[in-house]
User: Fold these one by one.
Assistant:
Number 1:
Amino acid sequence: QQQVKQSPQSLIVQKGGISIINCAYENTAFDYFPWYQQFPGKGPALLIAIRPDVSEKKEGRFTISFNKSAKQFSLHIMDSQPGDSATYFCAAGYLYNLFFGTGTRLTVIP
Amino acid sequence: SQTIHQWPATLVQPVGSPLSLECTVEGTSNPNLYWYRQAAGRGLQLLFYSVGIGQISSEVPQNLSASRPQDRQFILSSKKLLLSDSGFYLCAWTKTDMNTEAFFGQGTRLTVV
């Protein structure tokens, strides 16, 4: 059973464009929503995270939008760059549990 | 600074053979430790987590087991590997509260043949 549903599975964006990845969850106990970035052959690394008391968090070109009532959150990458090409995972957590989405492979074309 | 070491990086094992993957954390004490498996199209699946020495919680029933013999050491084991055990295994740690940044190791690519 997938606790966090992520889409799309893959995404191709032109350099300078906006990349948008969406996630949804059901468990209202989740209180921590991070996004991780993973390059091939490496472990994931935290990119940005949000807690449900805010609706948006921005760090540089990366923004999380959070809709608590809809139980959805998304990652927006502004001015996408070829170096952003990686797999992105959303996650939702509470206590000692952190559940990941299935990942989105982003390719930014120069 | 804290670092996490995971080895080996790659491993090819025959079906029915045992498995031992090791993970150690440096630069912190009493971390929460985790084993995840990453399979194509299925994201990261939490296998085990530990909040202290000898304390192991399993999220998914399977052919694997975990142990934490020391505060900063986490071991993933199997007595007899199955083909379905193939995958990319990741160790991670967090500070006491899980709802903070999780730091992942470089992963072990396991192929069972």
Number 2:
Amino acid sequence: GIQVEQSPPDLILQEGANSTLRCNFSDSVNNLQWFHQNPWGQLINLFYIPSGTKQNGRLSATTVATERYSLLYISSSQTTDSGVYFCAVVGLGDDMRFGAGTRLTVKP
Amino acid sequence: DAGITQSPRHKVTETGTPVTLRCHQTENHRYMYWYRQDPGHGLRLIHYSYGVKDTDKGEVSDGYSVSRSKTEDFLLTLESATSSQTSVYFCAISESYTGTSGTNEQFFGPGTRLTVL
């Protein structure tokens, strides 16, 4: 199946800093989603972005499908942004595959 | 938020006992999924359903069975629980699988934490 790699695995920021999380995938996809898993374990949908660019408040995402990567940008980070960010993709004729996640800690 | 509930939310059981987890949706979505999440891993697909009584295996299906008798309910059964099935189980739903007939964006339930002693 399709391989998904996320980087960095861990990220520690001061409140107010900006960050970029990366997701590389090994084959063509017809779905790419970014999730935030909060400290209570809930998976929150951030973006459905198989291609193109989207923005939602302080978060934005870009997927370059032809080069097989996606980026999640977090600006002016807040302590409530802490948690694990997952990229998940669906390859053609395949099931959803998750990356191992990026654990973000935002310090006050 | 998508209307997805899971029950129970927490369960502790002993090795060899049967366990059934329930996922209930109010969105009338055709596709439903069961995943497990273990430390150091993202989520991995166990089984999915593409309609009432229609199910298929995922990446880690050994030791699990599923049933879907109604659009809104998808059950995951561990016939004889083992310690390796200690995990957090998530249910998900989507309108479509490929994205050609509705979006294939997946929405997740709150999860069930299962401990097998």
